[in-house]
Amino acid sequence: MAEATANGLGQHALHPHDAASVAKAETHQEHPIKLYLVVWAWLFILSTCSYLVDYFGLHGYLRWSLILIFMMLKAGLIVAVFMHMAWERLAMMYAIILPPILVLVFVTMMVLEADYTLLTRIAFFGPGP
What we know:
- The chain has a domain at 88-129.
- By secondary structure, it is mainly α.
- The model has no long low-confidence stretch (mean pLDDT 81).
- 76% of the residues lie in helices and 0% in strands.
- The chain has helices at residues 2-7, 16-25, 33-55, 60-82, 90-125.
- It starts with a helix and ends with a helix.
C-alpha cells in the first residue's frame, strides 16, 4: 500500500534495469571551454566597437543604429551560447526570439508614424513660432 501512495499509480519500484536506463538519460553533455572563450572574445570585441562609436563622436541615426546593432549582437550571443538556445528546438527558439523581433517591428512602425504625424502638422499648421 505504501508503494501505491508513494508514486500515485500503484506501480512497483523501479527494477534494476530501469534504474540503469534512468542513469543514462540523466547524463549531460558539456561544451568545450574553447566555445566559451571565443564567445567572450566576441563580446569583448563588440563592446569595444560600441565604445568606439562614442569615442569617434558619431551622431544621429548612425550612432544609435550602430549601438543598437552591437547591443543586439551581444544579446544574441549571450542567449545562443550561455542560455543554450543554439541547441534548443525550433519552437523554443521562436518562443524566445520572435517576441523581441515583433517589438522592434512595432517600434519601427511607431517611429514612422510619429514622423508622418510631425510632417502633417508642419504642413497644415506651419513650422511654429
